[in-house]
Amino acid sequence: MYWVDGDLLAVRSGAVLPLRCVKTNEPIEEGRMKRRALSYVSPWVYALIFVNIFVLLIVYFIVRKQVKVTFGLSAAAKKKRTIGYLGFWAVFLGGGALVAAGIAEDSVAFGGVGALAFVGSLVLLVVISNMLTVKRVSPDGVFLIKGVNPQLLREIQAGEI
Q: Which of 20, 71, 81, 106 is the 20 to 30 Å CA partner of 10?
């Protein structure tokens, strides 16, 4: 079960979205449908990083809420995502090489740029991996998701699909 709530897609667990790509709104074949579990935790949980990463992970896995959604992803959207992952690996490995060069050459500049690239690659990974993001969860278990193509949202709202 799904519907539109403002600029977000509202879903309950087990929702199967129409045969359209959630990113490009292109019609897709049934074989391109993916069933994924999307997770939500309050943004305040991430403040626990200042306490300890292990505390953050334990609390995250205890308090997270999940919804299973089946959605479509076109070949073009998948290609764009794959290119993003390749970019992540390039920056990640390049940053590691610069850190290693900085250590070998006793160069703070190489090491600093490498560390910056490493952190940047992790930010890139978070951005790429979140195709759809749960914005919030209502008390009755409705998950509000952002990242869905606006035209697809309009067509769902108008009852066209």
A: 81
